[in-house]
Amino acid sequence: MRLITEIAAETGIGEEHLELYGKYKAKLAPSLWQELKDRPNGKLVLVTAVNPTPAGEGKTLTTIGLAQAMNKAGVKTVAALREPSLGPCLGMKGGATGSGKAQIVPADDINLHFTGDIHAVTSAHNLLSAMIDNHIFQGNELNLDPQRIVWKRVLDMNDRSLRNIVTGLGDGNGVVRESGFQITTASEIMAVLCLCSDLSDLKARLGRMLVGYDREGKPVTADRLNAVEAMSALLKEAVKPNLVQTLEGTPVIVHGGPFANIAHGCSSVIGTRYALKLGEVVVTEAGFGADLGAEKFMDIKCRQAGLAPSAAVLVVTVKALKYNGGIPKGELYAPNRAALLAGLANMERHIENLRKFGVPVLVALNHFEGDSEAEVQAIIDACRRLGVSAAISKAWAEGGAGGLELAEELKKLLDRESAAEFAPLYEDQLDIPSKIGKIVKEIYRGAEVAFSPAAKRSLALIERLGLGELQVCMAKTPYSFSDQPRLLGAPEGFTVQVRDITLSLGAGFAVVITGSIVTMPGLPVKPAAEELRIDEDGVLTGLA
Amino acid sequence: MRLITEIAAETGIGEEHLELYGKYKAKLAPSLWQELKDRPNGKLVLVTAVNPTPAGEGKTLTTIGLAQAMNKAGVKTVAALREPSLGPCLGMKGGATGSGKAQIVPADDINLHFTGDIHAVTSAHNLLSAMIDNHIFQGNELNLDPQRIVWKRVLDMNDRSLRNIVTGLGDGNGVVRESGFQITTASEIMAVLCLCSDLSDLKARLGRMLVGYDREGKPVTADRLNAVEAMSALLKEAVKPNLVQTLEGTPVIVHGGPFANIAHGCSSVIGTRYALKLGEVVVTEAGFGADLGAEKFMDIKCRQAGLAPSAAVLVVTVKALKYNGGIPKGELYAPNRAALLAGLANMERHIENLRKFGVPVLVALNHFEGDSEAEVQAIIDACRRLGVSAAISKAWAEGGAGGLELAEELKKLLDRESAAEFAPLYEDQLDIPSKIGKIVKEIYRGAEVAFSPAAKRSLALIERLGLGELQVCMAKTPYSFSDQPRLLGAPEGFTVQVRDITLSLGAGFAVVITGSIVTMPGLPVKPAAEELRIDEDGVLTGLA
């Protein structure tokens, strides 16, 4: 691992613009932006994937490997990634910093507290929660309806027992009411942090967040609780992007990490903007598969920030396609050409979808030991038939060297003149049902959208509040194009059931809830935390 | 504000031992300890106070001012302070970094997230909480009794609504049971962090913490939940002391901040040990007045860490003594010699008490504008009569220069040969009721101790568990020597009611609960958070 000051210097960042967190992590000071802001932007490349499967597709790994490979191929490339959330790291998932020879480091520090950004979001969120309950307790001047507080509490921990709780029990302990905790990455403040353009925009967005309704049914926003300045103060360091490096010394901006279902699932706009000034190419990722992650990246993040991606890389694996071809988890290791060919329909549809945004597509076949040559070749052949570039990536085993073929394909794609003519899927002025309809029909390929009575009431309220032009953030199972997790491959003709629509007014979108979305994960029988070890020198094993 | 690297260099700390957090904060790496450990220790001075009053005594301010003054007087002095807790900063209290010309800086950063230590305690604590509930949910192999889980959850926020809650509601969301949140500084992990000598000791202590009882009534400790390694990993940076500076560039180690009622209320042992190797003199403080703070400093911290204080500084103010003389809060500004003379009994008793630990005492009269000369003189005269050194401190108005007289008195005290012959108040081998009795009779001057039925049951359990030799940590109102907040001055003949005795086995003490102890504060009508402002450059006002 090299000193972060050296990595910064090579990236063109003077030491005076670094706020060091130890020797290997740094925040980028706002003074750097003053120096960078008039430079031309590099080219933005989104790494996305087919629908996720239990086998793991390696999207983060491929993003890191591709950034390493691009640098090896002579293109100054910066990666822009999300911050891992502590809860899942200690729960089901282990670390989230890549793996093999495509990792960001110091992995353990990044996986645990990193530079404290997520803790700052937790504090800001829970300050508002405490001020809401205190407001009611101290006389409730705003006439808040305790039964209609929509602002919950958050912790960065997987703790199912906190999903639904009753608070305020006992004499003098506030007002008894139902509430609950979400994981911090599900906080609207995380989405706000990731979409804001600076501290002033952060403040404005925090003020617009909906906390609940008063007894007359009128919405009450956070600015009414006098908490916005204090929340912004708690977030003043968290809005600054973090610089770390890959195992090969590639600069990586790791900043923000909102949920990919009830939020948009992309790293921060601020971090992406810095990266675009620092690299000729910026490689970034979005949550889940392209039906959710890429759609929101394009329709929410890029639209709000005025960004235009130049290419999309679609990560596929032999196992993911076989799984989408109907093979159960336990049998994915055996070659099965028929299942693979059936599963290609999933890849094909994602490619078609990505092209709808006017962005050229490159398929990255993330190679695993044990992939049969015939299966690999079948994927490459399919891409050729579809007229889409494709390359094998062996970033896990070989790091940047294993991604050189992919890097060369990406360079070709980016060099082609006017390859990308980016446009979001839907127009701002469409009403919310039409926006949902467009996503369901053009991306998911469902036949219809059905709105529950609750969703219809929410739509009527949104209309009444004059918020009909909000963007939409789809909260849907990631495992299927549809809202039914077991409908794999490339289903059609289904109806998407909209259960409810909630408002993230600070983030600027209406969250469209389909299926049951868990915003507070639980721990499994054997949590990842049990595998962690630390020796007397403070060296960890078992996490990343 | 000077660069922390400069302050470190002047203190004899090479840059290679610093882990920077921005330009003005640093953690001290364990490598420094290797270099320091064989050096002789400096002299340890405890700053404590008369019973706290609504007027504020300025203990932290005086500690900082004294450290500044000692350096001005040519004695290389390091201060060792507690970390402010975010909850109270945003609640009732505002910042906790001193004030006027005796402050530690960067005050806003120290008051908010600082270097993340308290957040790390929150994470480690709540990981154990989640693993307990998950253990029960996944089959409860340890046969834990859900009604007898003593391990709660924590947040660093003032939020009364979380004091008593019901968790686990709803299908698949765990086991329904009563629980609650404490503020993070009340976590036993904070006490453990502050008492441990290194990472190995931390781990051992975390493993001993009591989480609850099984259905056969047997205690279950944290090591049974397989969470100790992960908790230690989460705390691996938090165990490293933090270096900052005062407004005059005096080095200050700010590390740890446990509650002063259910815990011992002192900054970390590790931080104190580093400071003792770096300064000829180390000035440190303990929570609340001397009846709680100094007693626990001597009987818990010094005993466990093998430290021997060379002197105690007792902070008094004209207003605090008048308040203890029976004058209500609103009338403290008017001179009132009779009330002052009555209140001197409080000071006198604290002096007597401190001497029982074999430590010479120096009275620091923290001077406020508006103190009448006659009142000031009356205090100085009283000290003379008692044969105790005393000096006026004007650290708020004048910084170190205003504490020079106090510094000279302290130097004299420390120069006197064999001035201190420190011994804790009670012997390790006394049983718990005898230890409590000794504190109540010799420090509080109560006539008797009454144990509630619950306390008697707890005592019997402690005896049965073979834990009779634990130290005791008194949880009592700070406002009176007695357990009745309104019994000011120097009361006698009262009975202390012990409601319950709980176990902090990782910290190594039994917590003796008298009165009702609130471990989760609430927000006032107008929280301090509402006064906070942040401008577009990220500069804060209204906090410190």
Content of β-strand of chain A: 15-25%
User: What kind of sheet is the major sheet of chain A?
Assistant: 12 strands, mixed
Averaged pLDDT of chain A, please?
Answer: 96
Number of strands of chain A: 25
> Class of the largest domain in chain A in CATH?
Alpha Beta
Q: In angstroms, what separates the terminal alpha carbons of chain A?
A: 16 Å
| CATH-derived topology of the largest domain in chain A | Rossmann fold
CATH superfamily of the largest domain in chain A: P-loop containing nucleotide triphosphate hydrolases
The count of helical stretches of chain A stands at: 18
Query: What oligomeric state is this?
Result: homodimer
Helix fraction of chain A, binned, reads 25-40%
Based on CA atoms alone, the radius of gyration of chain A comes out at 23 Å
Describe what you observe in this structure.
The first copy, chain A, has 544 residues and is α/β, with parallel strands linked by helices. Chain A folds into three domains: 292 residues, Rossmann fold, CATH 3.40.50.300; 119 residues, Domain 2, N(10)-formyltetrahydrofolate synthetase, CATH 3.30.1510.10; 83 residues, Formyltetrahydrofolate synthetase, domain 3, CATH 3.10.410. In chain A, the strands form six sheets. In chain A, strands 1, 2, 3, 4, 5, 6, 14, 15, 16, 17, 18 and 19 form a twelve-stranded mixed beta sheet that branches. In chain A, strand 14 and strand 15 form a beta hairpin. In chain A, helix 6 runs antiparallel to helix 9, helix 8 packs across helix 9 and helix 13 runs parallel beside helix 14. Chains A and B meet through strand 1, helix 6, strand 9, helix 8 and helix 9 of A and helix 6, strand 9, helix 8, helix 9 and strand 24 of B.
